[in-house]
Write a structure and sequence with these properties.
Strand 9 and strand 10 (194-203) form a beta hairpin. The chain has helices at 2-31, 50-72, 234-248, and strands spanning 35-40, 76-81, 94-97, 118-120, 140-146, 148-151, 165-168, 174-179, 186-191, 194-203, 219-221. The relative contact order is 0.13. Helices cover 27% and strands 24% of the residues. The termini are far apart.
Length: 250
């Protein structure tokens, strides 16, 4: 009887490993053929000094880490400079606006009308994208030092299975963006103790965004900063992946 039990346990362990392997292989396959239009800062800004050039290089290196993660999920990523014509995003499955871009170097309403799902963590584009109102420090902004957020909408797919309550998304304090979205937004997480300041929120296609603007496709805003993706905690990475998944979901 003991031998049978041991054999059963061993079989269960092997089966579990096989299923896990199959699941890991299936996830990228689900996104095979899907394309990401990744907007970053490729070209050097005219007149930039050495410090700004270093910041740009560090930001681009951080974006390449994000792109590698997306490619591991099965996406094909195309990098484009922040000065790109937004109409070139047509036919892609997802637009990513990195916080490495300089909002003042982009057209005021660039990508607002793009009929492609859009994911961004560039705080200074929230108003022009109609994700929030236009008053910096009131409608959108950054907190200098934070590594906790509060999940308030765990049942939603955008929560990535992270339960309601306070959780850390970084191992230590970093800068974190926030916004105060319109009523039609789906808010997933906020800053602890500041329920009006959302750090993960989204709009469904057709939802009324700020300025009474109707979302032409799904829109998602996250709390990331220029180079903080690689520091995400397991829960933070779940939220990022959930934002990507929900954005491209049919």
């Amino acid at each position: 009887m003991q031998r049978v039990t041991r054999a059963a346990v061993q079989f269960a362990m092997v089966l579990s490993l096989l299923l896990s392997f199959g699941s890991a292989r299936a996830e990228p396959a689900a996104h095979a053929g899907k394309r990401v239009f990744y907007v970053t800062r490729l070209d050097e800004v005219p007149g930039a000094n050495e410090r700004h050039r270093q910041i740009q290089q560090q930001g681009l290196a951080a974006d390449r880490i994000v792109a590698a993660h997306l490619e591991a999920l099965g996406f094909k990523v195309t990098f484009v400079d922040q000065t790109v014509d937004p109409t070139r995003a047509a036919g892609y499955d997802l637009v990513v606006l990195s916080s490495v871009v300089q909002s003042r170097e982009m057209a005021d309403t660039a990508f607002k009308d793009t009929k492609v799902p859009l994911l961004t963590w560039e705080n200074d584009l929230m108003d022009s994208l109609r994700l929030t109102g236009r008053r910096k420090g009131v409608d959108y902004g950054e907190v200098e030092k934070e590594h906790y957020i509060r999940i308030i909408n765990a049942p939603h797919a955008l929560a990535g299975g992270v339960p309601n309550g306070k959780t850390y998304v970084y191992p230590r304090d970093v800068m974190m963006g926030w916004g105060v979205p319109a009523r039609a937004a789906t808010v997933i997480a906020t800053l602890p103790g500041e329920p009006d300041k959302a750090v993960v929120f989204a709009y469904e296609k057709g939802a009324t965004m700020d300025y009474d603007f109707v979302a032409p496709a799904r829109r998602v805003a996250l709390f990331l900063d220029n180079d903080t993706f690689s520091s995400l905690s397991p829960d933070g990475l779940k939220l990022f992946d959930a934002a990507v998944e929900w954005s491209v979901e049919p």
